[in-house]
Amino acid sequence: MSEVLAFAWLGFRHIADVSAVDHILFLLVLAVIYRARDWRDALWVISAFTVGHSVTLALAVTDVVRPSQRIVEFLIPLTILATAIENIVIRDHVESRWRYYRPLFAGLFGLIHGAGFAGYLKSLFMDSIAGPLLGFNIGVELGQILVLAAIGLVLAVIDAALRRAGPYRWASSPFRVRVVGLSGVVALIAAGWAVERQPW
To answer: What are the angstrom distances between the C-alpha of 108 and each of 61, 75, 102?
Structure first.
């Protein structure tokens, strides 16, 4: 049990660390399109992402798959960029048919993010795999919950500020300003990372 707790703490710290900023920005662009009333849709998407990265993490640390870290580090910002662009292009995710596909893509992108965690976790293994893997996954998920709660608070503050500053002639609502503005900023950051990390 102590080993599981130790690796849970490592997983939690890994998410809360500055080195996980790409993972945090991905959670942000996943969450930015949802209001509080859309919590069920948000839960499906975040759960799909969790399943995806947990599966790849398990496969990679047990050597079932051996992804190239250079390719993975390049693909991670591309998943962020693709999600940010989708946020901008699709005007109403909750009402559109796209809401049914978003969990699928979140799960697929989660596979890539899980491979990004694998190299770090694998370097910490000694003999046993099951305990550290379980603990690390628990820690990552607890870290994600904390990050998502913080994102929710920040988005609520932004929404309140935008409502006070409106109306916007060039946008349908303050909520749309929030989605497009934050997604645009994250898209620029992710595009820069993709250029820096290109493996060719």
So the answer is: 18, 12, 10
Q: Which of 112, 18, 14 is CA-nearest to residue 56?
A: 112
As to burial, measured by CB atoms within 10 angstroms (0-12 exposed, 13-18 middle, 19+ buried), residue 76 is buried
- pLDDT (tens digit per residue) in 81-108: 999 999 999 887 666 676 778 899 999 9
* Overall domain count for the chain: 1
> What one-letter code names the amino acid at 120?
Y
Could you give the CA distance from residue 144 to residue 27 in angstroms, rounded to a whole number? 8
Handedness of CA 197, 200, 114, 34 (dihedral sign): positive
Residue 1: both structure tokens together: 């049990």
Q: What average pLDDT does this structure show over 174-178?
A: 86
Question: Is 80 or 56 the better-scoring residue by pLDDT?
Answer: 80
Tell me the C-alpha distance between 22 and 18, whole Å.
9
Q: Which tens digits make up the pLDDT trace of 52-67?
A: 988 988 888 788 888 8
User: How many whole angstroms separate alpha carbon 50 and alpha carbon 44?
Assistant: 10
Let me know: does 184 contact 64? Beta carbons within 8 Å. Answer: no
Q: At residue 87, what are phi and psi to the nearest 5 degrees?
A: -60, -40
Full DSSP string of 142-164:
HHHHHHHHHHHHHHHHHHHHHHH
- Residue 109: domain span: 2-197
Between 19 and 57, the more confident residue is 57
